[in-house]
Amino acid sequence: MNTKYLNIKKYGIHYLxxxxxxxxxxxxxxxxxxLEARATDQQSKYEKITExxxxxxxxxxxxxxxxDFGVGARGGQVSExxxxxxIRTSGTFDAExxxxxxxxxxKTGLISSKTEYGAGYIGRRTRDFLxxxxxxxxxxxxxxxxxxxxxxxxxxxxxxxxxPVQSPVQTPVVKKDTVQITIDGVGTFNIEFKNGxxxxxxxxxxxxxxxxxxxxxxxxWGVMVTxxxxxxxxxxxxxxxxxNGAYAQVGASDQQVLKNDITxxxxxxxx
Length: 271
Hints:
Ferric Hydroxamate Uptake Protein, Chain A, domain 1; 34% helix; alpha+beta; five-stranded mixed β-sheet; single chain
């Protein structure tokens, strides 16, 4: 009886040890599975974090307005202008575009009123603003040089015997020969001329002496006046040269002038 009981006890302990070992093995395998799952999850998160973002698209250079244009113009420049003004893109400089341009010029100080010369037109200053974002302001500098045509009068010199010494005889002032020049919107001036002067020489001398703006371009055949005062030659308008009351038959740089000639510059349209 005791031997049988001892055998049962012996084998029961063996079974219990086997069960315990199996339990430990199962628990270890579950732990390994959990650790492996966590490692996989961490690797997946790392891979998501280290993804390289897509490259930015190339930046397109801003459009440059290279020439003047106004109402009735068509083409790419007009389309780009309409995009810049955020209005309907038709490619035609119409009434809607004109109103948008006037609003832009008023807001930026390019013009002071809608009736001002150059209002609603994409000229040099408006193009500069569209291309650079800055408003160009022109400052006119006038240099006046005052010369005396008469010699200074010296007081008589008195010697010890009180006899006055006669002053030098003053040379009478000689009236200089002049040519009259009349310019629309600027004025009429009498300008001294020299032998061989052209009508264009008189215009340049008048600009220097009276301080108004003069722009021109030189070519092999002569010169073309592009601006006098605040008026540019643009669109259908240009500066026409008249000589002694008639439309000149030659350019101003080829027309020689004589004493008392009359030259005129009129702002006209060829239409």
